[in-house]
Each structure stands twice: as C-alpha cells, then as structure tokens.
Amino acid sequence: MANPVKQSTINSARLNLRPFQWSDKSSVENLIADPALTEQTNKLLHPFTNQQVSSWLMSHESMFKQRLKASWAITLRDNSPPIGCITLTFSNDSNSAEVGYWLGTDYWQRGYATEACNTVVQHAMDDLSVNRIFAFVLPGNTASFRVLEKCGLVVEGTSKSIFFFNNRYQDATLLARVSGNKPHPDAPQNALDVLPLGHPQLLQTASAVEPGTIATPEFQQLVDQLIDTLRHFDCMELSAVQLGQPLQLLAIEVSNTLYQPYREELPLIIAINPTLEILSDNFFNYYDSCISVPGMVANVQRPAEIQLSALDRHGEPFTLTISGISAALIHHAWEHLQGRLFTDHLTDISALISQRYFHQYIEADYRFSMLQLKRRYRQPLVAGDPA
C-alpha cells in the first residue's frame, strides 16, 4: 500500500479532514468531556484525562509513519476547531483498514458523519490503494449502521463477544466494502441542503398540493428528495418548506431510539396536505430541536394527543391518532407548513440552549419524565396506513 511521506488533508463539500495539531488539545478535551458522546462508541471511554489526550495527540504522527493508523481531525471548511475525529486502522497483511469516527454531540444529525466517512473511504481506496474497508457496529446503533451503508459497506456477519463494553462482552455487526464496489443502492442519492434559521422562505405558509400533480415524476422526485434528505441528515421529521419548496408535504420517520429510549419508533410517514387536530388540553414540556436551527434546543409546550389526516405519496387518504412524544414531533413538523419554527414559541432568546449543554446537564432528568410519558401513552400510533 502506497504511503505518502506526509499525511494528506482531504476535503469534502462542507468539511476539511486534516492531521491533528497540538493546538487542537483543548478542543478535543471539550468534545470528549461530554458523557453522551462516549455512549455511542466502545473505543472512546469516559472520562479521558488530560495526559491521555496529550498522549493520544502525540501518537498520531508515529502511528501514520508506521502505517498503523491515520487519524484526521474533522473540521468545517472555515478551518474552525475540530468537531470530531475519523480514523483508518490498517491491517497491512491483508491490505484492509478499519474505519472509525466520532463527532461532538452539537454536530449530530447534520450529515457530517456520512460526509466524513464517505470521503475517507474513497481516499483510502483511490489514493491509498486499500482493498477492503470494514467497521464494527454495536447492537442498536442504527445511526452508525446507516452511515456505513451510505458509504457502500454491507453486512458480512456478526462477530461474537468482540468488544468489552458497559461491563460486559458484546457482539457486533461486521460491515465491509471491497475496492470497486459501489455504494449501497438504497443509500440516499438525492439529498438537498436544508434552509437555516433566518431564511425568509422558512416563514412562508405552504401551499396545498394539487391532487392531480401527486403522480407526476416531478412531484415524486421531490418526495424522494425529501426522504433522502431526512435520512442523510438523520432527522426525524422534515418538510418541503425546509428544502425551499413551499408545498404542504412532510416526511416523518423515527428508526433509531438507542440514545433516546423515551421515543417510539415510527415507520416512514409521507403526509401531503396534512390537517392536524389537537384532541385534548393535555400539553407537556418538550425539549425541541430542528435541523434548520442546528445545535440548539429549547423547552416548549407541545400537545400530547393529536389526529393527523393527509394523503400518502400515492394520493390515498389516511388518518392517524397519535399520542405522547410522537404527537409533539408531528406537531413540530406540521408547524413548518404554517411558517413556524419551534423558536417562535419562545418569549426570551435566553431559553435557547446548546445541544451539548442539554445532553450534559438536562437530558438525564428529561429522559425520566419522557419515559413516564411513554408509559402513559402506550399506543402512540393508531389506525391508518402511514407509508
């Protein structure tokens, strides 16, 4: 395998992946101080001491020169401090490499993991002549599984008791991609950019979709783009308004509840021209977030019981009665069609907090209250065919 004298910096649309520098030490320490980060990986144990971080940083150059490991700091294209790390651990006898990554919690659900991973996989195969890329995923880590699938890795099997994690030996799913293989055919191909807070189109009231246009290739392509963008950014809900299309169209899907066990999984819902009825006076405190307001969370009041009526992607009507935290999620999505964001519920900007602060100081108590809500509403989705 070809080994450059100096480790390369590689770029993607939104990211710079560069070798770590000593000046990154404080940024790394701040990122990995968040216990929520270490819950997602068996290789980043909490807490790290300052000395361990120092040793880790100093090891990168030597590890690369020995063709043992390449580690890149994940940074935004504005050359800001690192937001995460991605690595290739080489098995030179078989010309393969294990890919691994982590991101600071403020940067989850934005597609950065997929973008970084895909960039490194392509670099490994095209520039470093690695023949096989592989990775292990712990049970239930649907988000990482999906990231690796988007990068063309496919399941090869289960490795029994391969990791000692959370005080016990655990199995892991082995995924791999061999040089020359194309990305998984089901990986999102049509993801679009999401409009950010402050964009005037987010304030528009969406127009109803003409039923006669639903079956057209153009509208069906928009539905596919909405789904692909939802999955690319690992969102739970997304509106066409957020893609710059002021139409009454929503996509909702909750497929990974590993880190939010108080949520209910929801199959993919495509809702065209939805109407929403609040069924009771039961409201609850819901820590809301949005892909259009990245990195921020706020406590808002959301209804606990709603009824959603809409057309599916084929133009067929359906009605769903939804309760609990899923009702709050769908109410949030529906408000996008009214030109409203969760920030419109706030009377004081100081009510906005960072996702990192939420994960570190609030989520534990919030998780308990939401689990109680989940027990109260045991059937969050009733009637209808949502897909």
What does this structure look like?
This protein is of the alpha+beta class. It has two domains: 10-178, Aminopeptidase, CATH 3.40.630; 200-382, Peptide Deformylase, CATH 3.90.45.10. 26% of the residues lie in helices and 31% in strands. The protein is built from eight helices and 17 strands. It has helices at 25-32, 35-38, 50-65, 112-126, 142-150, 217-232, 325-336, 355-376, and strands spanning 10-11, 15-19, 69-76, 84-91, 96-103, 132-137, 154-165, 168-178, 237-239, 249-254, 266-278, 283-290, 293-303, 305-311, 317-323, 353-354, 381-382. An eight-stranded mixed sheet has the order 1-2-3-4-5-6-8-7. The termini are far apart.
What keywords describe this structure?
2 domains; Aminopeptidase; globular; Peptide Deformylase; alpha+beta; 17 strands; six-stranded antiparallel β-sheet; disordered N terminus; eight-stranded mixed β-sheet; 26% helix; 387 residues
Count of individual beta strands: 17
Proportion of beta-strand residues: 25-35%
Termini gap: 47 Å
Largest sheet: 8 strands, mixed
How many domains is the backbone divided into? 2
Radius of gyration: 22 Å
Q: Look up the CATH topology of the largest domain.
A: Peptide Deformylase
* Fraction in helix: 25-40%
Question: Could you report the average pLDDT, rounded to the nearest whole number?
Answer: 86
- CATH class of the largest domain equals Alpha Beta
Task: Identify the CATH homologous superfamily of the largest domain.
Answer: Peptide deformylase
- Low-pLDDT residue spans: 1-5
Helix/strand/pairing category: alpha+beta
